[in-house]
Amino acid sequence: VTTAGVMYVHGASSELRMENVTVQGIQGKAGVGAAVVVGDDGKVGASRCGFVAIRSTGGGGVVALVGARAVVELVGCNVTDAAVKTETVSRAVLLGGGGVVLVDGSDADVVLSETIVRESHAPQARGGVLLVTESATRARVSLNGVVMSETSAFAGGAIAVTVPDVGVAAWPQIVLDERTTVSFASATYGGV
Fold it and tell me: By the 8 A CB rule, do 40 and 18 touch?
């Protein structure tokens, strides 16, 4: 996987913590994770942060989890105008999407709590906000009190999950609590 992150967190001792930080205007030119890429055993936590006008060419506009056992937690964050800008639909099917988060690593943990996502798009890809790929076996994703509005994608206007081969015994787990909402999401295929 080609990565493009401005911040790259990889390795058992690596951890990035952000509080009250605004990340704005990042244009990833190649690969996934325009703002943050999390590799094997990396940990990222963001609290009360803003992510504005973030663009990725492959997936995970704000954050891409590409390694095994990668961990990301966004709490009380605001994401506005995040997008995946792929070249063609056929490339998007191979490379992914996830305007805000791309989960592409096994045993990954993602928690979004009390976070607002507006205007997140993957027009030629999957998952306007979140894409969990078939490579994310045993991944755990929890959305707690997340508000997603005005999101769109080619497939899965807000959330897209691609299923591993039938023979795989470890499926990803995606849990949305009763406070999580999706409004004004659209997709060419696959609604929410």
Answer: no
**Residue 54 forms beta bridges with which residues?**
82
Give the chain's mean pLDDT: 86
CA distance 93 to 80: 24
User: What's the rounded Cα separation, in Å, for the pair 68 and 137?
Assistant: 10
Helix and strand numbers, DSSP H then E, in the chain: 1, 20
What pLDDT is attached to residue 96?
Answer: 63
Instruction: Indicate the helix (H) or strand (E) that contains 45.
Output: strand 43-47
Q: Taking the model in full, what pTM does it have? A: 0.89
Q: Which residues contact 120 (CB under 8 A, 6 or more apart)?
A: 61, 79, 81, 82, 83, 99, 100, 128, 129, 148, 150, 151
